[in-house]
Amino acid sequence: MFFLIQSESAISILPVTLEEYLASSQKRFDYVVSSHLLCTVDDPAHALKLFQQALKPGGTYAFFDHVLNEKSSTISFLQKSMSPVFQVIGDGCHPDRDIKKVILAAGFDDVQVDEFDLVSFPFFVRSHIRGRASMSNL
Fold it and tell me: How would you class 38 by CB atoms within 10 Å of its CB: exposed for 0-12, middle for 13-18, buried for 19 or more?
């Protein structure tokens, strides 16, 4: 994985993993943004801990991801049934993860979540969340 890092004086491209980069970035960022990421990482709770460590006091984590469908037992059953196959064809994606629950349990001070269906996506990954979570100024 490569990260494009821009400072006032230079732009650098670093060949590092997300974990390596964030572990070296303690309390450095005002914002961490992820889109369709927590469904694919091995340990979403660990990723959120890394995000928290990278955020400055008062920093914000903004997220957008698909989630386990809680409205339809049929669709949630399909998500759970298709998960092993989807992990192979979907680059590690777990369509059956309850990402909202993981974010709410991560220990952020304030979490705002908007749930919606993204109708342009296939029916088994239409349930989405977007929102933000913040760390206190302490």
Answer: buried
- Helix extents (H) in 29-124: 44-54, 73-89, 99-104
Contact 31, 60 (CB under 8 A): yes
Q: What is the pTM of this model?
A: 0.79
- pLDDT per residue rounded down to tens, the chain (138 residues): 444 555 555 555 555 566 776 666 677 788 888 888 898 888 999 999 988 988 889 999 999 998 988 888 888 888 888 888 877 877 778 888 899 999 999 999 999 999 999 888 877 788 899 999 998 775
Place of tokens 């049929």: 74
Q: Backbone phi, then psi, for 127, in 5-degree steps?
A: -70, 120
For residue 16, what are the CA distances in angstroms to 19, 33, 53, 88, 115?
Answer: 8, 18, 17, 23, 33
Strand order in the sheet with 29-35: 29-35, 55-66, 127-134, 110-117
Q: Please name every residue paired with 65 in a beta bridge, in sequence order, or none if there are none.
A: 129
